[in-house]
Amino acid sequence: MPKLRGVLLDLDGTLANTEDYNYAYATNKPVEELLEYKLYQFLRPVLKVISWEEFIELYIRANKEIKAELHGTAASHNRYLYIQKTLELCGINFVPDIIQRAVDFYFDEMLKKTVLYPGVLEGLKQMKFNQLSTCMITDFTADIQIRKIRKLGIMKYIDYMVTSEEAGADKPHVEQAVLALKKLHLRQEEVVMIGNNPKTDIELAHRFGLRSVLFDPRGLYQNQKGKETFYAQDFSEVMKWLGVPKVEYSRKKLLVLDFVGTLTTEKSMIEEVIGTFVRKDPAFVSAEYQLFRQGTITESEFWFRVGVSEVKKAHKAIDAAITIRRSVISLLEKLKKKYKLVLLTDFPQQWGRQIFENRGLDRLFDRMIFGGDTDFVKPDARLYNHLLTLYPDISPENIALVDDTQQALASGRDLLMHTILVENAASRHTAFVPDTIIKDILDLGQALEKNERVNR
């Protein structure tokens, strides 16, 4: 099997039981537990003398008519249209407020019952731990699917979502798959489709040339062989077939901290540190500094280009220009009791190690990774992958990444790390939204405690 880099996932009936209490799919469920029966009870004041048997017959008829009229589109799944058509068939015309309340009631009832199938949460985690990109492709409107994903608590394990509303067509039309691969930046041979419906999910994969898994948690197709590449009723079997190894982790926690702009009062390396003794254009100095950090030029070449001849004096000037508040040291000493502390910074190791040793900061960190210690610089995802290889027993979900740069945080969250932005005037705002924002590094302890309470 070619190297797997991405997974396309159906939602309803594949990851979660959202179809299990639907009249069309429910098996061996008491009528009183069906979503349509609860909907009928909600609408009783409007329906008056119409019985449950009459209601469900008209509801099924309305469902079929809407699907026929809007075949292959996201609107064909719209519960508002189903209920509106049902009431019209009952002779009740245009009661939009009642219909909207009924729709909200229907999905509220669904979400009360919605849970992931056994093994799915662990499987999604293992996909992300093994750096597989994930895209949910689903026949429904985005707003409803987002509500389901939130309820299930799986949002951070899904990189992208494509709905038939966005793609303009339901499965098995291939538009959703085309859009998904475009978002993932992957090729067909690098992706697998996982779904529970042979006529939609598996047929789409077949048409588009994707490998596929028919995941059938209710055992509806166990005696049938279709177009799927692999069949399973247990999600752990799916993971084995995908070749995704299970990763076991300890309960240890890691706190990864940036340096300049995070632990220091100085926000800008160029203007507030190097700029205190180098009198050249800041933009020019910044460009040369980036070349030095990336290993494109040596330190001596950097100093020569910016007009500094005495390197030892330059090192002392940098040391003198950096201020770390005593309260930060106290904070780190406190956090060290609960977390392994790692310094992860692009600050050059030629300058940084001596500064940390001189100030006794090196004793606070389990490990210090400076610019030049690896072949990568922020926000290169390979730097954060390297970090994970150094701590293979610590779950990425137990790693908190603290930085004043959103781009760096984005690379960490792609690997499931909790991201905390230390916001300052020098922060460059991007479209990335961190998990937590603090104005002062001294608020870090409180932010970490709040995150732990939320995730308990």
What does this molecule look like?
With 456 residues, the protein is an alpha/beta fold. The protein folds into 4 domains: 6-16 and 115-242, 3-Layer(aba) Sandwich (Rossmann fold); 31-113; 254-265 and 322-455, HAD superfamily/HAD-like (Rossmann fold, 3-Layer(aba) Sandwich); 267-321, no CATH class. It has 19 helices and 12 strands. It has a 6-stranded parallel β-sheet with strand order 3-2-1-4-5-6, sandwiched between helices. Strands 9-8-7-10-11-12 form a 6-stranded parallel β-sheet, with helices on both faces. Strand 2 (133-138), helix 6 (142-152) and strand 3 (160-163) form a beta-alpha-beta unit. Helix 1 (35-47) packs antiparallel against helix 4 (96-113), helix 2 (52-69) crosses helix 3 and helix 12 runs antiparallel to helix 13 (299-305). It is elongated. The two termini are 39 Å apart.
The CATH homology group name of the largest domain: HAD superfamily/HAD-like
Q: Oligomeric form of this entry?
A: single chain
Derived from helix and strand composition plus strand pairing, the structural class reads alpha/beta
Q: Span between N and C termini?
A: 39 Å
What is the helix content?
Answer: 40-55%
- CATH overall fold name of the largest domain: Rossmann fold
Largest sheet report: 6 strands, parallel
Mean pLDDT: 92
Structural domain count: 4
Strand content: 5-15%
CATH architecture of the largest domain: 3-Layer(aba) Sandwich
CATH class of the largest domain: Alpha Beta
Large-scale geometry: elongated
Number of helices: 19
